[in-house]
């Protein structure tokens, strides 16, 4: 986003609003200096300045990268932009991560990396951590004040849970994993009830008919985020049955994420925690 600062006849900076052009670009020194002068003069409040900065800027990568990097997502949402690996070439991933590392400050996350993407990224940016197909740079220290439980119905749901846990760790959260406690053996879940009660948020991941979300929604006082998985036999319809079951749950207030979207569940949980901590 480019900002044009109008000059008065004596060539001093004219106080007033910065005018946005149609295209976004880097925040330049003159526009930031003008904004600071407006704050100093009292013509722009600190809150208005922060609101303007929230709309600044993204970087457009040319050539084969063909991407717009949203540097200010961390300021707007409290969570940085993540890179979704599928559909991108290794070269595109390398260019995007380079931009995020060079001109950003928060953690850099690439999800669902392919072997080719991993090889290229690790070769060019070696200081990464990897977990469950998620590559992260600048991973923060664990924040022990945030307690999130990730509960799976069956062992077959593990890959989605892995993505969720890896994403949470990228944001500085060490999730408490509780595995294989589906409704086919409900006593297994009841044995973990006290442990689940210690969490601020419960993420439940289940395939088949997705009934575990309803059970936990009825047992827990905390927010419950439900993730249907594509695990199941023919009538499971690649996760559609679990999705519809979670959406139709009689346990009120469950939040439902898309099929197999462990990353989305982690982000939803972090948004909730940011509101709680603000």
What does the model show?
By secondary structure, the protein is an alpha/beta fold. It folds into three domains: about 5-55, no CATH class; about 60-135, Translation Initiation Factor IF3 (2-Layer Sandwich); about 150-275, Rossmann fold, CATH 3.40.50.1970. It contains eleven helices and 13 strands. The chain has helices at about 30-40, 45-55, 75, 90-105, 115-125, 160-170, 185-190, 195, 210-220, 240-245, 260-275, and strands spanning about 5, 20, 60, 65-70, 80-85, 110, 130, 135, 150, 175-180, 200-205, 225-230, 255. Strands 10-9-11-12-13 form a five-stranded parallel sheet, with helices on both faces. The radius of gyration is 23 Å and the shape is globular. Mean pLDDT is about 85; it is low at about 1-30.
CATH fold-level name of the largest domain: Rossmann fold
Largest sheet: 5 strands, parallel
- Coarse morphology: globular
Order of helices and strands: EEHHEEHEHEHEEEHEHHEHEHEH
Distance between the termini: 29 Å
Uncertain runs: 1-28
- At CATH level 2, the architecture of the largest domain is 3-Layer(aba) Sandwich
How many runs of DSSP E, i.e. beta strands? 13
Number of discrete helical segments: 11
Proportion of residues in extended strands: 15-25%
Number of domains: 3
Report the C-alpha radius of gyration, rounded: 23 Å
Strand order of the largest sheet: 10-9-11-12-13
Main structural class: alpha/beta
Average of per-residue pLDDT values: 83
- The helical percent reads 25-40%
Could you name the CATH class of the largest domain?
Answer: Alpha Beta
């Amino acid at each position: 986003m480019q900002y044009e600062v109008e000059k008065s006849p004596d060539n001093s900076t004219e106080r007033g609003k910065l005018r946005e052009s149609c295209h976004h670009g880097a925040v330049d020194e003159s526009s930031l200096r003008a904004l600071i002068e407006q704050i100093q003069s009292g013509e722009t409040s600190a809150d208005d300045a922060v609101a303007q900065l929230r709309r600044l800027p993204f970087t457009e990568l040319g050539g084969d990268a063909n991407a717009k990097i949203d540097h200010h997502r961390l300021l707007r949402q409290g969570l940085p932009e993540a890179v979704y690996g599928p559909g991108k070439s290794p070269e595109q991933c390398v260019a995007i991560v380079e931009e995020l590392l060079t001109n950003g400050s928060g953690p850099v996350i690439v999800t669902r990396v392919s072997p080719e993407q991993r090889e290229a990224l690790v070769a060019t940016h070696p200081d990464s951590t990897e977990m469950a197909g998620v590559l992260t740079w600048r991973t923060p220290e664990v924040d022990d004040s945030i307690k999130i439980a990730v509960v799976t119905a069956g062992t077959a749901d593990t890959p989605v849970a892995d993505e969720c846990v890896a994403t949470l760790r990228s944001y500085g959260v060490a999730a408490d994993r509780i595995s294989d406690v589906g409704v086919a053996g409900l006593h297994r879940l009841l044995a973990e009830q006290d442990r689940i009660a210690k969490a601020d948020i419960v993420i439940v991941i289940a395939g088949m008919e997705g009934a575990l979300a309803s059970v936990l929604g009825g047992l827990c006082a905390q927010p419950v985020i439900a993730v249907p998985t594509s695990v199941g036999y023919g009538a499971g319809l690649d996760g559609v049955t679990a999705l519809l079951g979670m959406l139709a749950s009689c346990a009120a207030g469950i939040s439902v994420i898309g099929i197999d979207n462990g990353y989305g569940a982690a982000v939803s949980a972090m948004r909730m925690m940011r509101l709680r901590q603000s």
